[in-house]
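Action item from last meeting closed. Structure (349 res):
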């Protein structure tokens, strides 16, 4: 199985989407000649030409406004916002127009626009380069919001987002861009069909079958457990897995780790089912806690599984402050110690 970085997997997914549909176009600041700041679009301009991989001015509002017009004419634009904190100039276009046009037109206009945003901290940058803006978009009816946590998911989720007829805000954890995973070939056309292994010359199934992709708007159990449910998304999923491994080695506690993957709509059935078994829930993300995704998860789980809870739902998040100078970001961001402390506190009730 090939091993790719998340950036490489996203590049592979974008290439596959563009090969499958000539109406897919990529646009953004430096996405063409440079291949993007994080090189996610590297080589795509050479392969598909400057009419499909378009370097834009430094004007996020114009990028999204142009994408809306292209979508009206049948294209599937993929917009790259260079850094998370740069999305705010485009906020009016996204929430006032892109999110509402399908509903406002009584279904006549579809808006298959994908907005790629590198998000989160951990790279030693400052505010405007280390934001976690997901709650803004999750609150906006008409937008779908998803985030990948590993290369294998990134490769397939970006293709699914582009194929969706609704606008999708696609959040990419920038600190995970260079981490490698095995990426099994994925056949999106086989969604809902059994995957068949490819045979070698001797008739043996030597080549793994194409991975059956999970639906785009679904969460996933990353690591089964029985004592505590630990929920994260994007950059925090790998940290949560590290916590589970440490807890098992040190205390024998079995922690179930769930990757939300989709933030709007939330797929909480696996979370609720898990909490009904474990009785304890800790939710983790980099964004501040106030009016956040973790607050929504805590509220819904409490509504649906109140009598199964052995302790209050606890949250480990960034602080309710602007993003700090880079020398302080390790204090700001949730880490293994803070999450383990929350896990321990669930046992004090």
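Sequence:
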């Amino acid at each position: 199985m090939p091993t790719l970085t998340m950036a490489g997997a996203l590049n592979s997914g974008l290439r596959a989407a563009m090969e499958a549909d000539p109406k897919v176009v990529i646009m953004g600041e430096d996405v063409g000649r440079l291949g993007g700041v994080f090189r996610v679009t590297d080589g795509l301009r050479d392969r598909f030409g400057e009419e499909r991989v378009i370097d834009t001015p430094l004007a996020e509002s114009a990028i999204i406004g142009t994408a809306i017009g292209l979508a009206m004419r049948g294209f599937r634009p993929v917009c790259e916002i260079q850094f998370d904190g740069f999305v705010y100039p485009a906020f009016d276009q996204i929430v006032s127009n892109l999110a509402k046009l399908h509903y406002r037109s009584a279904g006549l206009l579809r808006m298959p626009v994908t907005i790629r945003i590198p998000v989160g901290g951990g790279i030693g940058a400052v505010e405007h380069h280390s934001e976690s803006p997901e709650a803004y978009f999750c609150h906006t009816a008409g937008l779908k919001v998803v985030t990948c946590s590993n290369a294998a998911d990134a490769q397939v989720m970006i293709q699914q987002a582009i194929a969706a007829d609704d606008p999708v805000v696609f959040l990419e954890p920038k600190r995970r861009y260079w981490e490698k995973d095995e990426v099994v070939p994925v056949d999106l056309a086989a969604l809902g069909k059994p995957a068949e292994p490819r045979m070698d010359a001797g008739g043996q199934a030597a080549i793994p079958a194409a991975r059956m992709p999970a639906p785009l708007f679904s969460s996933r159990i990353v690591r089964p457990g029985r004592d505590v449910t630990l929920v994260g998304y994007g950059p925090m999923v790998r940290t949560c897995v590290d916590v589970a491994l440490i807890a098992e080695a040190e205390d024998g506690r079995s922690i179930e780790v769930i990757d939300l993957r989709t933030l709007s709509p939330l797929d909480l059935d696996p979370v609720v089912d898990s909490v009904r078994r474990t009785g304890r829930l800790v939710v983790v993300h980099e964004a501040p806690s106030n009016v956040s995704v973790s607050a929504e998860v805590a509220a819904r789980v409490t509504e649906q599984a109140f009598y199964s809870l052995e302790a209050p739902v606890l949250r480990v998040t960034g602080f309710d402050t602007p993003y700090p100078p880079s020398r302080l970001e390790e204090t700001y961001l949730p880490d293994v110690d803070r999450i383990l402390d929350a896990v321990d506190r669930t046992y004090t009730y």
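Note appended to the action item: The first strand starts at residue 3 and ends at 5.
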